[in-house]
Every structure is written in C-alpha cells, then in structure tokens.
C-alpha cells in the first residue's frame, strides 16, 4: 500500500465493520454499493423519517488476520454538501455527523467532476471519521486524456485515495482492502472553525480545494462523453423533437407494459387458479378450507398478478433515469408542469402512478419544492393505475364488442385510452385548483444536474425493480389480503340463523344446480355483506348502482382490484359447476323492472367512478407517511370521492 | 465589464460569477459549484423559455430563471 498509516495496524481486531457510502448524486455511489452487496441488501426506513435506508452486507477475507470480516454497508442518499436541503439529504448529513456506529466512510467521488465532488469530500474529512476516497469513473477521465496524480491527492487529503470504475468493476478489490486496513482517522482539517458565515466558508472551501487540486489534476478537457451529451441534448431538448420523442417514448412504454405484461399475468392467473382447484381437491370441505381458498389464496392472486406490470414499468423508468434521459425530460417539462402547480420532477411520479401510486408517491421525494411535492402527491392517485385496469377491461368488454372499430382503431382500446386520459386530465385540473388553494411560504429550488448519457446498468435497475415490487407486494399486499379475508367473512356469515333458515327452505325442494345457485344468491343477500350493500344502496342508486355493486364499492375502498374478485364472489358463490364467465353472469343480471342492470349508462358510470375515486388504503397510508399528517390523506380522500360521485352522477344521467 | 444576473445571459454567452444574493439558494448553488469567481456559460434554454442550463466547473447544471436571477455575474 502507498499510505504509511494504513499499514500501521493492519491486524485490526474487528471482524465487523460498518461502512457508510457517501457521495454526490450521479457519482456512482449506488453502483458501487450494489457491487459490494449484490442482492444481499434490504430497504428500510431511517428512524422517524420516510427516507429509504439501504443496507447490505459483504464478507471480506482479511489476509493479515486470516479472518472473515463482515462489512455492514449503508447506502446514504446522494448529497452535495453536509448542509442539507431535502429530507433525504438531512438523513445523510445526520448519519455522517451523529451516528457513532459508522466505523468508516467510503466517499465516492466522480473523478470527471473532481472539484465539485471534493466540496463534499473535504466536508466529510473535516468530521474526523475514518475515510476512504474512491475516485469513480476514472476510465472516462483517462479517455478524455486527463491525468490525476492519485498519490499526491492522497497525501494532500490525508486519506487513502483509490481510482475505480464501478461500472466496469475495476479497482473494487483495492477498495475492500483499504476498508480493512484503514484504521486511523485523517488528521488534516480543511476548515476547523465552523462558526463563520456559511457563504464565506463555502468560498474559503473552494479556495482550499483549488490549492488541493493544483498539480494533482491536469486541466479539465471536454470528455468524449460530454461531446456526445451536447449533441444528444440538441435533439432531446429541441422545441419540437424533444416533446415528440418524449411522447413517442411514453407511447412505447405503455404499449410494452400492457402487451408484454399480458403474458406473465395470464400465466400467474392460471397458476393460481390451477393451484386453487388443487387445494379444493385436497383440503377437506369446511369453513377453514373455504377461507384459505376463496379468501387468502384469491387475495394473494389479486396481488401477485400485478407484479409483471409494475416490474415492466419500473424497468422502463429505470432505463430512462439511468441513461440520463429523465433529467432532460424534467428540463423540458418543468415550465409546462409549473403552470399546473407541479414540478418538472413530477413527471416521474405521474408516470409511475400508472403502475402503482404507492411507489409513485414515494418517488416524489426528490422534488425540492414543498408545495409542488405536495400537489404531486395529492394528484398522483388520479393517474389510472394497473389495479384499475382489470375493472376497466371487464366493464368495457360488457358494453363494447371486441370487433367494434373506429377507423383503424379498436373501440375497446380507444375507450380504455379515453379513461386514462380522463384520469390524467383530472390530475392536471386538480393540480391547478390545489395550486390556487394551497399557500406556502417555504423557500424552494429546482436546481438539477444534467448528467452525461450512459448505458443503463442492468444490475442496478434489476435491484430497483425488486425493491419496488417488494414495496407493492408488502404494502399493498397486506391490505388486499386483509380485505379479501374480511370480504370472505362478510359474505360467509349472516346475523342470527338466516343461513340455516334459507338452507332449510331449499332442503325441501329438489336438489339440482339451479336451486344451489339460488340458495347461494339468497345467502349472499342475507349475509353481512348483503346487509352492508343494502344500507348504501339508496346513496348510490342515483349513479345507477344496486346493492351488489355496493358491496364491490365497499370492498374496493380498500383496493380497487378487489372489484373483479368481489363480482366473481357475488355472482358465483357456491356455484362450483359454473361455466358462465363473470361477464356473462353480470350481463344476465336484471333490475326489478326487467331492464338489464349493466346497461351502457351503468357501466360508463361505474368506470368513471373508478377513474376518480380514492379506493386504495395503501395509497392513503403512504400519503400519511410521506406528509406526516392525516390531514392530507383525508383531504385527498374527500376531494376524490366528491369528484367520483359527481362525475358518475353526471355520466349516468346523460347516458340513461 | 458589465454587471447583470445569470438569468439575463443569452444563449452561448459566458460570464464570471460575482455574488449570489439569496442566502437559501446560494447554499445549494455553491455546493454545486456556482461560486464567485467561477466562469459560467449559458448552454441551453428550455424550449418554453425556462429553466436554463449552464456549464460550470466542468459539468451541466439546470436551474430555474427565478433562481438564476439571484446570481450576479459580470460579462467578460
């Protein structure tokens, strides 16, 4: 090793070291973290705040002690300084300044932007903790014909400095070794008197950095990657082509998400159906088996079936973010979004909202403006998420034949698109209202780095997808599962001896299939679910809904996708030998006066209701977590419910 | 030498940063390399006229015009 102090006590007795990964956004910090920990990482929360805490472990063999050392790694949110602006940054600064469990800080710096990266690096060194500085993207520096005198820099900084290329996995072993052997804290302090005025201290720090990099780095050259970025920027931020390409990319994403995800979704559905039938064969008949198959298993299926769509959407969003394209989209969209009280960065939550509002709302954290972030959170659930899709698909197929066409376009597809646009339009209008209504005095900023373009890193994207899917399955899954069980219970039990009386009544008649179906239907009406549906029937009658739809609405208030399952339960409970699909059963449903219940007016009204209504407890929970107040989820729930009711009422009145 | 704000620069023009008037924005800008004495080039203006993108300290930074208006520069 080059550094005298690293060799002094190479026989460190510790067999567990906690390492904090710190660095600027876009410095490759997370890439390095992923290289260290692979899939052995988990996302939690920092205590008391909503910021993601990524932790993972790696094992290293310490040659000196002949022992395996466990590295506990923490990936801190990217920061530019220890004076935090956003909540993410506050956490990073707080961990670095106050957490005594951290044994060593691995500072990751972008070597192509050494001067700016050293601003944070020297601040961290000033804390006095043990540090190792990794100069990432050293390959780009070399390509550009620049030179960095690593040894001189290490000597001047007083900490080990190692050139690496995280994308090419180069220099990683040396870093691991340095982490094991560095046990003394840096002695150099760049600025020890912290009582001065911040602006003056910043200027002084840059002066010291300029002295520091004198003779260390040859003059900054325009790197090949930067030349490419300039050329691409001309097109991608062009006043016509910029927007055209963005729309094209969006269209491409949605086509792929819906078409590609269709296959695995069908496989998952079939798999669950097959297994459910198998369980029904194996398990003894009874309430408990029924709970498992029609409650828990059906609920689980309803959760897992959305995984492909969410995974695909985050694959594409990951590619857009990782390549650097998303920053350009934010750049060209900011002014447009600002007209609606949103932020250029709202583009990411709004697009993600088309998969699932839960991770989408969490991704609004990067918005530095509090008001714009809040508005983004409040309107994101109006974007049609994948949970609405099965509801729309079912209802559209009931009123529009699959073969109907308008010109080249399939009418079913056009209707679906219209529903998505309706949600998007509502989100913008709601944002506009909120912009006028909400008052904030908070200072805010937009300031954003436009990074160079790079090839996507599949490993990081994959890890992110797994992360997002986990959030969905765990957060939304818990609720959906609970609701499925509650729904099962509500429809399987009735007050008093109502079920027994019904069974007695049908016992006396002949025992054929139609009698069994009738019994099931009457049982449902008598059950707690039926009672609940009847209670709300007068309220929803103006929208064209009956008590059965009422049950579905009640259960959907926990999660929308439960609608289709509820319909399946309502129309086929106990009907084992049924060959009619839910669709046909619903189409056969008649009102008291003999008219079809699911008329065009009812279906449209129902779809419009699902576009606007806040029917997702997981989303309300995440909004509470993100805003730290029940006020906002409550406001969101109320405004969306009113919107849904009014829009449904108008739709039903017009079409009936 | 002529003083103006960063928001008033035209596309392709370069200038030297003099000072930043807003202390909240200044902290954020300074940690990102926008420091007095630094050379800045106005690289791009977004199609709708805002935000702008500047080249500073060897990389590209995007900021809103309202933020750029707090940065005083002198044209070289």
What this model shows, in words?
The complex is a heterodimer of chains A (656) and B (76). In chain A, 60% of the residues lie in helices and 9% in strands. By secondary structure, chain A is α/β, with parallel strands linked by helices. Chain A folds into three domains: 4-220, P-loop containing nucleotide triphosphate hydrolases (Rossmann fold, 3-Layer(aba) Sandwich), CATH 3.40.50; 241-393 and 405-437, no CATH class; 461-655, no CATH class. In chain A, the strands form two sheets. Chain A has a seven-stranded mixed beta sheet with strand order 2-3-4-1-5-6-7, sandwiched between helices. A two-stranded antiparallel ribbon of chain A has the order 8-9. In chain A, helix 11 (287-304) packs antiparallel against helix 19, helix 20 runs antiparallel to helix 21 and helix 26 runs antiparallel to helix 28. Chain A is elongated. Chain B has a single domain, classed as SH3 type barrels, CATH 2.30.30. Chain B is globular, with a radius of gyration of 11 Å. Chain B starts with a strand and ends with a strand. The chains are: A alpha/beta (656), B alpha+beta (76). At the A-B interface, helix 4, helix 8, helix 13 and strand 10 of A face helix 1 and strand 5 of B. Strand 10 of chain A pairs antiparallel with strand 5 (59-63) of chain B.
């Amino acid at each position: 090793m080059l550094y005298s102090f690293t060799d002094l006590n190479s026989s460190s007795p510790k067999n567990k070291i906690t390492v904090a990964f710190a660095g600027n956004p876009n410095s490759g910090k997370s890439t390095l973290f992923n290289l260290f920990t692979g899939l052995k990482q988990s996302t939690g929360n920092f205590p008391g705040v909503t910021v993601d805490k990524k932790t993972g472990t790696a094992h290293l063999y310490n040659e000196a002690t002949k022992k395996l050392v466990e590295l506990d790694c923490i990936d801190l949110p990217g920061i530019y300084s220890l004076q935090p602006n956003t909540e993410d940054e506050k956490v990073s600064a707080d961990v670095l300044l106050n957490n005594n469990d951290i044994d060593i800080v691995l500072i990751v710096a972008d070597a192509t932007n050494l001067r700016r990266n050293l601003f944070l690096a020297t601040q961290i060194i000033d804390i006095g903790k043990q540090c190792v500085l990794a100069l990432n993207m050293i390959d780009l520096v070399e390509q550009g014909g620049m030179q960095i005198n690593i040894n001189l820099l290490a000597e001047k900084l007083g900490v080990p400095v190692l050139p690496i290329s995280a994308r090419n996995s180069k220099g990683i072993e040396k870093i691991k070794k340095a982490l094991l052997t560095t046990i003394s804290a840096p002695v150099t302090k760049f600025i020890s008197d912290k009582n001065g005025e911040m602006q003056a201290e910043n200027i002084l720090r840059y002066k010291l950095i300029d002295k520091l990099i004198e003779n260390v780095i040859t003059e900054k050259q325009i790197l090949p990657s930067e030349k490419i970025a300039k050329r691409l920027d001309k097109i991608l931020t062009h006043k016509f082509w910029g927007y055209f390409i963005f729309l094209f990319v969006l269209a491409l994403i949605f086509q792929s998400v819906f078409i590609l995800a269709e296959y695995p979704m069908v496989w998952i559905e079939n798999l669950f159906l097959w297994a459910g039938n198998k369980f029904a064969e194996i398990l003894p008949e009874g309430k408990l088996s029924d709970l498992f198959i029609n409650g828990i298993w059906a609920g689980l299926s309803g959760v897992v079936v959305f995984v492909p769509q969410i995974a695909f959407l985050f694959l594409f969003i990951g590619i857009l973010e990782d390549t650097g394209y998303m920053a350009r989209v934010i750049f060209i969209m900011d002014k447009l979004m600002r007209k609606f009280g949103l932020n250029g960065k709202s583009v990411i939550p709004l697009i993600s909202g088309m998969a699932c509002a839960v991770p989408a709302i969490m991704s609004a954290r990067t918005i530095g403006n509090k008001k714009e972030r809040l508005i983004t959170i409040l309107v994101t659930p109006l974007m049609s998420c994948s949970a609405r899709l099965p509801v729309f698909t079912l209802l559209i197929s009931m009123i529009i034949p699959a073969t109907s066409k308008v010109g080249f376009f399939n009418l079913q597809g056009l209707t679906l698109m219209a529903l998505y646009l309706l949600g998007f339009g509502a989100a913008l209008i709601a944002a506009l209202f909120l912009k006028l209504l909400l008052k904030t005095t908070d200072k805010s900023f937009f300031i954003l780095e436009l990074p160079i373009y790079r090839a996507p890193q599949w490993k990081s994207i994959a890890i992110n997808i797994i992360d997002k899917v986990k959030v969905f399955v765990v957060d939304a899954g818990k609720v959906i599962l609970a609701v499925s069980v509650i729904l099962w219970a509500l429809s399987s039990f009735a007050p008093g001896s109502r079920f027994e009386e019904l069974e007695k009544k049908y016992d006396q008649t002949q025992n054929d299939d139609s009698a069994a179906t009738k019994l099931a239907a009457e049982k449902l009406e008598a059950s707690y679910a039926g009672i609940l549906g009847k209670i709300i029937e007068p309220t929803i009658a103006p929208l064209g809904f009956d008590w059965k739809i009422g049950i579905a609405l009640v259960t959907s208030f926990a999660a929308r996708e439960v609608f289709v399952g509820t319909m399946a339960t309502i129309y086929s409970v106990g009907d084992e030998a049924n060959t009619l699909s839910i669709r046909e059963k619903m189409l056969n449903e008649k009102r008291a006066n003999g008219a079809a219940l699911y008329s065009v007016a009812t279906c449209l009204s129902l779809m419009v209701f699902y576009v606007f209504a806040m029917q997702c407890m997981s989303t309300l929970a995440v909004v509470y977590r993100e805003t730290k107040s029940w006020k906002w989820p409550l406001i969101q729930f109320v405004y969306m419910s009113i919107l849904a009711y009014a829009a449904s009422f108008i739709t039903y009145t017009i079409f009936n | 030498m002529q003083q103006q704000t960063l928001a008033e620069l035209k596309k392709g023009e370069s200038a030297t940063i003099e000072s930043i008037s807003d202390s909240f924005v200044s902290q954020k800008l300074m940690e990102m390399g926008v420091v007095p004495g630094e050379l800045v080039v106005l690289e791009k203006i977004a199609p709708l006229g805002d935000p702008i993108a500047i080249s500073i300290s060897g990389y590209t930074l995007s900021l809103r015009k309202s933020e750029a208006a707090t940065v005083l520069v002198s044209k070289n």
